[in-house]
Design brief:
The protein is α/β, with parallel strands linked by helices. The protein is built from 41 helices and 34 strands.
């Protein structure tokens, strides 16, 4: 991480080098003349006496400033280049003139030693080195001391004054030719060209730590949310958009413009994030040209006004009382507004003075900004309409007692309906702040003397607030139903898909199980049948065995009856015993068999029983599986049926509802042109709520009119309260509440807010932030609760006073990165890095690729201007919101350039515009809006064109004599006209400058997008196409393709404008072949128009020797060789050798078919000599 002190010290050095600007065309600054006998005292006294400024009673702090040793800043650039061995670049620098030091005197010629100023760039010029902080301070302190001694008590001593003055001139070897004098109305406040406007704030920032300042310096790389809306992108994030665009996140207030049109998708995203969805307090919006940055700002302003009105209406006591801590005069104290109100106050800042003025001047316009249906309602609200349409000023007058009093002067303007209210004013510089406090005093006076209190406005506001809020709540409920509907549709599709898949799987499984179970069951049945068969056989055997046993038993019984007696013979007894034994054996065998068969029967019975039970169990399991499958089918059918019914019911509701839904899956262009949920009725009710909020504000100011007047008085006398900043901050709160939108340039911001501390500004909006150097906004950022930066880094970058090589050197010197110090570093780029919500415009996902919230719908230019811009700067992400075809063309005009200005291009443009004026005289009607802008990348080209076109009354000048419709590209950002001519200038000698002009897309992008209907390039086509790079290549390709598609909408005809001799035809093409005719050789040319032409070489006969010699060399070969020689910076011998041995040269010159190359070592020199004689 780069050290904070290093970052700020680097910025401070840049600012020191910017100090001491002085402009020779400033009519308030006069050249110091050499008086007779070097009597500077009498000379200056005489000028003071004769100057109105110094003798005006209202200018009590008037005086003079003397600027010594005025020089061109380019001298310092040259010194730095030489000291650090830096090469010059082709960048167009806005260097200008500087003075070395300035001395201040009051109107009595008292020297004001504390205001002596010595420019750091002058130190570098004198001592040829960059000073460190300590050595410069020593030098400055010593010089201050020396000058204080020289001019001490010299205000009434002409001799001492003159000696001191001449000693200063001698010390620094200065002539009066390089000195200037200026008369100042207020010495302290009018010293605007001395110290940088930002250094004090930058020094303070070293010791200040706020969340916004830290994020600004170090960025926010964690938890970035990529707003990628392209449904074909890998980073597509529909859920992010669906969350941000919930109806509950839409604002309740809206600026009362045209309610027919809603914001585009990304405009609404930006508004919703600002309205409260995003809890971070610093963010950026990246808006390409014509994407409605100002439109979205208006809606954010309206929402903040509504929030303030709601908080005011909910206050228990709306009369804000002061306390002992806020006593500002005698016993009078000023009330302190609750923070919940002041945190929504609005300040707009920019480095671009035009941007600052445009916003505050446009917001209160009735006709241009307000929908006709709300005009009467706004007039009824009357937010100090009469004051807004009056010229308000103040002056100090003496009364009869000699005391001075401030008198407020109100003069009605001619158009009393121009502004609908006192909604916005330009602040910043002291004159503007005086104008604001004068208006605030008028408001307090109006509230005291004219306004009729109406406390009912609070209830009326709350009633409208709840009405709009209820619409939003109902829409949110509807959105939730839609969300439920979409979820149910998804669930239904998933269920159907899942059902089909699972049914297939379950059926297959069931069938598999069924087959397996059947196989097992069959085996069991077979085994059971076998057991039954064995049991049957066993029963038979058992029965037979029992019969045998019975028979044997009966036989035994019979034998026992035949038992021989005691006295029977031994043989008889033996025979009997034998029979008995045999019978017993047979009985025993029968008995054993009976036991066996009985056991076998038991075993078989058990097996049969077991098999029977298994059979029943398997059968039951199969039946259960069948039933489970059928039950699952039924359950799924019921769920699907219920969802189908629910979806069908809501689908019919949607069919009869005109609410536009958010469909992230739709076509990219259609998506960005859409805005979901709310219709025109809601936009109308939002607008009405804004108007009622103005009524609440006015009534609240009435109830606090003493605080309003006190705030203006305190602000005018801030020096009295330097030690009591709480009083000044309280005054600011009331001033910014009275004037809802106050703007300032960064140059004046720190002076306007010098006594305002950290987080004392509610909402800071920075416009055209891509043009602001990063250090310019530091003071504004640490003073603000909330910061929104709006701009486009792809348009004009900050104006450079030093080239990139010097910036590189300074970057290394201070140990900082390009992020903080480079030709592309800006307030926009740093805030982009700090913004949580944004977009990766490239695939690398780096800080360089990350931009803020992108706006993509372009509504200004027709094609092809839109396409040029979209291709070279926005990777095709922009969406055309203004379809249609314009006109274009590239007028190929060449010539020799003088400091990039090509006289032929100036002549062409004069004749071209003159013809256009004949067809449309409104072009030079000073009362009409600009129809044509003439733009150039180069300052001198723009200046010369402005003077040239002045001849035909085309050039328009502002009050300071600066051209308004002719200028560099930097002067036109934020503007638009139906027709734009971009004059490129430059020639081959200034090809480096030409390459610089088209090296990056910014300038071409801005030039093309100033044109609403027609865009033309005037320049050397070949020169610029040879510069290479995608910017000019893509631009030319778009114009060429457009010419093929719409030839009737393309104009690149130079001849008809310049009225060239029709007998002379200019052919551009490629020499295809060289042939021999009856009289001479001729060249065959294939033109770029695909036609074939021939060139008779007899017309070049003067270039050839009439003596007998080797055959003539074709002219095309000689000329081609000379062109290659110059382009490659080689000698005659080298080009001849290359032709002889290098096939590439032979192909280039079409000499591959020659038996030997037709150029000798003398051919080229003789050709040049004859050409010169001819």
């Amino acid at each position: 991480m780069v050290n904070k002190k290093n970052i700020i010290d680097a910025w401070i050095m840049i600012e020191h080098l910017s100090e001491g600007d002085i402009k020779d065309n400033n009519k308030a600054i006069f050249k110091l003349e050499s008086p007779k006998e070097n009597d500077f005292y009498s000379y200056i006294q005489s000028n003071i006496t004769n100057n109105k400024i110094c003798n005006d009673i209202n200018k009590q702090n008037s005086g003079i400033v003397l600027y010594f040793d005025v020089f061109d800043f380019i001298e310092v650039i040259a010194i730095l280049r030489e000291k650090y061995n830096l090469k010059p670049t082709n960048e167009e620098l806005n260097t200008g003139k500087k003075f070395s030091f300035a001395l201040y005197f009051d109107k009595k010629l008292n020297y004001m030693q504390d205001m002596m100023f010595f420019a750091e760039s002058a130190y570098i010029r004198y001592f040829k080195k960059i000073p460190n902080k300590a050595e410069f301070k020593i030098f400055e302190d010593e010089l201050k001391k020396e000058l204080a001694q020289l001019f001490d008590e010299s205000s009434e001593d002409a001799d001492k004054f003159n000696k001191a003055f001449n000693k200063v001139l001698k010390k620094f070897k200065i002539s009066t030719d390089s000195c200037r004098i200026q008369f100042l109305k207020n010495i302290e406040s009018d010293a605007t060209n001395l110290h940088s406007f930002f250094i004090d704030d930058l020094e303070n920032a070293k010791e200040i730590s706020t969340a916004n300042l830290n994020l600004y310096l170090y960025g926010n790389t964690k938890n970035r949310i990529n707003l990628d809306s392209n449904n074909t992108s890998l980073n597509f994030a529909p859920n992010v958009f669906e969350d941000i665009l919930q109806p509950n996140n839409y604002p309740l207030g809206r600026f009362p413009g045209n309610t027919k049109f809603a914001l585009s998708l990304m405009q609404q995203v930006a508004v919703n994030l600002s309205a409260g969805y995003d809890d971070t307090t610093i963010r950026s919006v990246n808006g390409p040209p014509g994407t409605g940055k100002t439109t979205l700002l208006k809606d954010i302003f309206a929402e903040l006004i509504v929030k303030q009105a709601y908080d005011i209406a909910k206050l228990r006591d709306r009369s804000i009382k002061g306390t002992k801590e806020t006593i500002y005069f005698d016993n009078a104290s000023i009330g302190v507004l609750p923070e919940i109100i002041t945190e929504n106050n609005i300040v707009v800042a920019s480095s671009n003075n035009g941007a600052v003025q445009n916003i505050v001047n446009e917001l209160p316009l009735t006709k241009e900004q307000i929908n006709q249906k709300f005009v009467e309602e706004l007039k009824g609200a009357d937010y100090f309409c009469s004051i807004a349409n009056s010229k308000v000023s103040s002056k100090w007058e003496e009364d009869e007692k000699g005391k001075t009093h401030e008198k407020i002067i109100i003069e009605s303007n001619d158009d009393t309906d121009k502004f609908w209210g006192l909604f916005s004013l330009e602040g910043g510089r002291s004159a503007n702040m005086n104008h604001i406090t004068a208006n605030v005093k008028c408001v307090a006076k109006h509230l005291n003397e004219e306004y009729v209190s109406d406390s009912d406005v609070y209830a009326e506001f709350i009633e409208q607030y709840e009405r709009v809020s209820n619409i939003r709540k109902e829409t949110q409920k509807f959105a939730e139903k839609v969300s439920k509907y979409h979820k149910e549709r998804i669930k239904l599709d998933q269920l159907r898909s899942s059902y089909d898949t699972k049914l297939k799987d379950k059926t297959e499984q069931f069938n598999s199980d069924f087959v397996e179970a059947n196989r097992a069951l069959k085996k069991i049945v077979e085994e059971r049948k076998q057991a039954e068969h064995l049991l049957k056989e066993n029963s038979i055997y058992l029965e037979k065995t029992r019969e045998t046993k019975a028979s044997v038993k009966e036989y035994v019984n019979m034998l026992q009856k035949q038992k021989p007696g005691l006295f029977s013979s031994k043989n008889k007894k033996s025979e009997y015993q034998l029979k008995i034994n045999e019978a017993n054996e047979r009985f025993k065998n029968a008995l054993d068999k009976e036991i066996y068969y009985n056991n076998e029967e038991d075993t078989l019975q058990d097996r049969k029983k077991d098999l029977t039970e298994k059979e029943a169990k398997y059968s039951a399991k199969l039946n259960a599986a069948q039933q489970d499958l059928e039950a699952w089918k039924l359950s799924c059918h019921e769920q699907i049926s219920q969802l189908e019914q629910s979806v069908q019911q809501f689908s019919s509701v949607l069919d009869h509802n005109d609410v536009m839904l958010l469909d992230m899956a739709q076509d990219y262009d259609k998506l960005h042109l859409s805005n979901p949920w709310f219709n025109e009725y809601y936009r109308e009710e939002q607008s009405k709520l804004f108007i009622k909020a103005l009524k609440v504000r006015k009534q609240f100011l009435y109830e606090n009119r003493k605080n309003v007047m006190a705030a203006a008085k305190i602000w005018d006398s801030q020096n009295k309260y330097i030690e009591r900043e709480n009083i000044i901050e309280a005054a600011w709160g009331w001033i910014n509440l009275t004037i809802p939108v106050i703007s300032s340039t960064f140059a004046s911001f720190s002076r306007m807010c010098k006594n305002l501390g950290v987080n004392t500004i509610g909402h800071l909006f920075i416009d055209e932030a891509g043009q602001a150097v990063p250090q310019a906004s530091v003071g504004a950022i640490f003073r603000s609760h909330n910061v929104m930066v709006v701009g486009d880094p792809s348009q004009i970058k900050p104006v450079l006073t030093m080239d990139s090589n010097i910036l590189n050197m300074l970057r290394e010197h201070f140990g900082v990165t390009e992020k903080y110090l480079s030709n592309s570093a800006s307030t926009q780029t740093l805030t982009d890095c700090a913004s949580r919500y944004g977009f990766y415009k490239g695939e690398d996902r780096s800080d360089r690729s990350w931009i803020g919230i992108p706006l993509w719908v372009h509504r200004r230019c027709l094609d092809p201007m839109f396409t040029i811009s979209n291709r070279i700067s926005y990777n095709g992400f922009m969406v055309q919101g203004n379809p249609g075809n314009g006109k274009t063309g590239w007028f190929d005009v060449k010539g020799k350039a003088n400091d990039k200005y090509v006289k032929e291009q100036g002549e062409f443009l004069l004749k071209k515009i003159k013809k256009m004026i004949e067809e449309n005289p409104a072009i030079i009607d000073k009362k009409a809006k600009d129809i044509i802008y003439v733009i150039s990348p180069f300052t001198n080209v723009a200046y010369m064109l402005s003077q040239k076109l002045k001849e035909i009354g085309f050039t328009r000048f502002d009050d300071h004599g600066k051209p308004k419709n002719v200028g560099t590209i930097h002067t036109f950002q934020g503007k638009e006209a139906p027709i734009v001519f971009m004059v490129l200038g430059a020639d081959q000698q200034s090809a480096g400058a030409a390459r610089w002009a088209v090296s990056e897309p910014n300038m071409m992008n801005v030039a093309a997008t100033r044109a609403k209907k027609e865009f033309y390039i005037v320049g050397d086509k070949k020169l610029y196409l040879n510069c290479g790079g995608y910017v000019i290549t893509e631009t030319y390709e778009v114009i060429s393709k457009y010419k093929k598609q719409y030839p009737e909408l393309t104009d690149d005809d130079v001849n008809s404008v310049m009225e060239y001799n029709n007998d002379i035809t200019r052919i551009e093409g490629v020499i295809a072949d060289v042939k021999r005719g009856k009289r001479a050789k001729y060249a065959e040319v294939t033109g770029y128009d695909n036609k074939t032409y021939t060139i008779d070489e007899n017309i070049f006969s003067v270039l050839y020797s009439k003596k007998a010699s080797r055959p003539n060399t074709p002219v095309n070969v000689i000329v081609g060789a000379l062109i290659l020689k110059e382009a490659l910076n080689v000698t005659d011998d080298e080009i001849v050798e290359a032709m002889a041995f290098d096939i590439r040269y032979q192909y280039a010159l079409h000499t591959t078919s020659f038996e030997e190359q037709p150029i000798s070592d003398r051919t080229l020199s003789r050709f040049r000599a004859r050409g010169n004689r001819a």
